[in-house]
Amino acid sequence: MMPTTESSSSSDTEVNLPPAFQYWQRRILLGSTFGYAIFYFVRKNLPVAMPGLSHDLGIGKAELGLFLTLHGVLYGISKFLNGFIGDRVNARYFMALGLLLSALVNFAFGASSTVFLLGTLWLCNGWFQGMGFPPCARLLTHWFTPRQLPMKMSLWNTSHSLGAAGIVILCGYLAVYNWRLCFYVPGGIALVTAIFLLFMLRDTPESLGMPSIEEVDPDRSPGQITQSETEAAKPSFRKTLVEYVFSNPYIWLISLANFFVYVVRYGMLDWGPTFLKESKGIQLSTGGWMVAAFELSGATGAIFAGYLTKRFFAGRGGRASIFYMIGSTVSILALWKLPAHSPFLGTLILCAAGFLIYGPQCLIGVAAANLATKRAAASAVGLTGIFGYASTVLSGWGIGLVAERYGWNAVFVSMIAAAACGTICFVMTWHAPSHTRS
């Protein structure tokens, strides 16, 4: 039985779904958001532990940057390949397994002391981390309509900021005692959360005996549902990938834009504490709170980006991202020129930077999922991810090498150039549709 819905003109009003469906939507959104936040606890703990690890084991900035780069590149490849798997397997078990394996790697990393073993373990962690986002993309596109997705994915996207902020604060204190605690404690938290995900998540509405999201979508009439579902069942998964992902120029453009967005995002996140300590004379624990402010403001920026896209840009995230990226460029310049020993002013600038850079980071996932349809959403997001994490060649090893040889001024010139390139990519997506019907 189809639920009654409000007129399409009330685009800001939630779909009137059966109570059971609404309950599971809330539960899936909450569970996947919290679960993905904890993925950050066992991924973004390394940057805060780097000063202590470097001091104890004598590892230089270029080597630490190489750790970040290799981890990021393998993470991007994993996210891409696991996107194909994520579109075809149970998201509940897949996400929990990835988090469990990352927790185990963190325990092993904290117990290791040789450069080779540490590097090998962090590479393995990169692969397991790539099992986190694809199941989330599958969950969101199977539980929410294309009209709901920008706002819901914006809310889900706060997981990035909450996870990254939480871990830099936690490890900022743990690192004072021993850098190894930065891996043992988050690993324990991740282990418990993996069990929580098994309880909290379910794969699709159909797996619970409920109607599919198409059957409760008010933008489709009953006749359209039957026809579209019949058409969606005809093409093979491979044909769907070719037609909606690999042959779509806008998917490639937003993927390239994601490369530059992640240069800025991870340049700030991975090197922020070290930059603030070495260049601005700010203590590591204080710098951890400042970078956390960057992340928490990013959560606000992501939510606002979803609202802005839905309210003013008719669901076209690329258009909203142009203005966000222009603001990001200005904020990078402001941080570069920040006076020494100015934690308060630095925090304000980092808040602005986080707010602005997380808007495009969120909207890229929304655009990819909607353009690729729910059948290939995880694959499309995986493709954008491989571009995003290929950026760690610049944001990890590249920045470490540039900072070591040429100083922080050269680093900020590079980041401003990356932000400008990202803006140009988004400009080229101006005419992209808001979504594609499967």
List the helices and strands and how they pair.
Blueprint: H1 19-41, H2 46-57, H3 61-86, H4 91-110, H5 115-129, H6 133-143, H7 149-156, H8 158-177, H9 181-200, H10 222-233, H11 237-246, H12 249-280, H13 284-312, H14 317-336, H15 343-372, H16 377-390, H17 392-406, H18 408-427
Helix pairs in contact: 1-6, 1-8, 1-9, 2-8, 3-5, 3-6, 3-16, 3-17, 4-5, 4-6, 4-9, 6-16, 7-13, 7-15, 8-13, 12-13, 12-15, 12-16, 12-17, 12-18, 13-14, 13-15, 14-15, 14-18, 15-16, 17-18
Description of the structure:
With 438 residues, the protein is mainly alpha-helical. The chain has 18 helices and no strands. The protein has helices at residues 19-41, 46-57, 61-86, 91-110, 115-129, 133-143, 149-156, 158-177, 181-200, 222-233, 237-246, 249-280, 284-312, 317-336, 343-372, 377-390, 392-406, 408-427. The protein is globular and about 60 Å long. The two termini are 22 Å apart. The model is unreliable at 1-14 and 224-232 (pLDDT under 50).
Gyration radius, rounded: 21 Å
Contiguous runs where pLDDT drops below 50 for at least 5 residues: 1-14, 224-232
The total count of strands amounts to: 0
Structural shape = globular
Characterize the main sheet. none
Count up the helices.
18
Mean pLDDT rating: 80
Helical residue percent? over 70%
Structural class assignment: mainly alpha
In terms of DSSP E residues, the strand content is under 5%
List SSEs in N-to-C order. HHHHHHHHHHHHHHHHHH
State the separation between the terminal residues, measured CA to CA.
Answer: 22 Å
